[in-house]
Structure formats: structure tokens, C-alpha cells
Amino acid sequence: xxxxxxxxxxxxxxxxxxxxxxxxxxxxxxxxxxxxxxxxxxxxxxxxxxxxxxxxxxxxxxxxxxxxxxxxxxxxxxxxxxxxxxxxxxxxxxxxxxxxxxxxxxxxxxxxxxxxxxxxxxxxxxxxxxxxxxxxxxxxxxxxxxxxxxxxxxxxxxxxxxxxxxxxxxxxxxxxxxxxxxxxxxxxxxxxxxxxxxxxxxxxxxxxxxxxxxxxxxxxxxxxxxxxxxxxxxxxxxxxxxxxxxxxxxxxxxxxxxxxxxxxxxxxxxxxxxxxxxxxxxxxxxxxxxxxxxxxxxxxxxxxxxx
Length: 307
Hints:
The protein has helices at residues 3-6, 44-50, 81-94, 107-118, 142-147, 152-177, 186-189, 198-218, 246-252, 268-271, 273-283, 291-306; strands at residues 7-11, 16-22, 31-36, 58-63, 100-105, 123-129, 229-234, 256-261. It is of the alpha/beta class. Helix 3 (81-94) packs across helix 4 (107-118). It is globular, with a radius of gyration of 18 Å. Residues 32-267 form the AB hydrolase-1 domain.
């Protein structure tokens, strides 16, 4: 599939969101699955992982969050998950999607939660992948702390990040997958270099800097989420703590099911891909036992670790 030919920019209220819709060729789609990517990336991240695994009778919508990929930045409010969720809800309406199963990875988990709280009528089910959804202790990385600043941050993002980032990009990207295997062509196919664009880098830093304070207030509303929910995380995730985020979220959403995979790091959208696809099918109404699939993934992780 040529992603460029299928990408559409849609005005969602003064700014545009970029999205790609994949529909099955044979039958009319009965279910839509909407993927929300994490920080420092774009729709290419979930697209690369899931676009070739579209279940029958389902269509997949991949969206660039505001300021990421080819989407416009929009207003300053768009650094918060609430505004991003509102924009995605508008996009769904304009693209003729009444309801969808929402899949959110990392920062995308916060946006998915906001969508479920603010627009429950649009959410048929939720799949949180290594979600960032609660306040945490420790802040953000030193380079994001610099980049978030108005003047110094702009200078840093324009003059330091492109050069320094190009040197450490692949190493930093591989670190996101640790301790699991890094796909050889991930950097190229996901176009991870896009994160080094000065405005995008500074925007991403401001999103991350604002997330914990947002989650402090927003997390009080998670108990209102009524959609059937599955949560997937790894016990080796050193980027988004499963204890602080995924396990707590599972306790607050009563109708949720939690999978904590042994040996898995942060990239559950890749390492646990088969489990995610099965979870999508389960939320769409199929009778599927997810436990054997989870155990199979854990066994593969263990085998890969042995070399």
C-alpha cells in the first residue's frame, strides 16, 4: 500500500490532521480500529506494525497526532491529551466513523483515555499498550527540559538537536525496544528522523512536560470509562512504569483485563503484536482466549534473549 497516496489531511477546526484509512477489499467493514501513536513518532509507527494484519471485516484508521508527522500543530491547547482527543473525535465524524476500537501506545494511551472519557459514544473498546496515564516522579529527560523552554528551547531545537540527534538517533530508538529485539528496518520505515525536526522536537518536549500535571487531574475520571478494555504492558518497561501506569489503570477500569508480559520492554505495539490483533478481534465480538497467545509471546521473548 502506498501510504502517501492514501493519506488525507482533514480540517478538524482550524488545523488539519493527517490520517490513513485501510479498508478490506472483499467485504464492507463492520468494525473500525483507530491507532494513536506515542511520543516522538507518527502514524508510521503503528502503521508499520499493524497495517499488514487487518482482520477481516475491519478497517484501520491511523492518525498523526497534532504537531506530529504531517498533521498541523494547531493551538497551544493541543499539547494536552484532551484537545488531541477532541480533534480525533472530530476526525472520526468527518471520515464517517461513528465508533471505533481505540488502540493507544504510550502517550497515545493518555489520548485514548481522554477520548473514552470525553467522547464515550465513539469508543467501542479500548486497548492500552504500555500506556502513560498517571502522574509520575522524576520529570522528563534533560534535553526535553531544555527544548520545552520558549527561547532557549527554540535555539536548542533548531541548532543542537538536528546535529546531535542524527548521531544518537538509532541508538536512542533501539533503547526504546530494549531488552527486546530491534527490527532492522524500523528506523527507515517509521521515519524516526521526523522527531528531529526543530518545531516537532520542541512540540514533543512540551507535550511530555505537560503530561504528568494533566494526568494528575484527568486520572480522577478514568473510573467513568465504560468501554470494554484490555491493557498490555511489559515487566521490563523502563520507559513507562507498568506499576505506576498500566497496573493502576487496570484497577480503576472495572471492565478491564490486564496482561503483564514477562521480559517485554516498552514496545508492546511490536513485541506483542499478535496479542494486540487477537485483542482487537475479541473486542469486536469473537470468542478468543488471549492467555495462550500471551504465553507464546513470553516464550518467544525468552528464546530470543538466549540468542
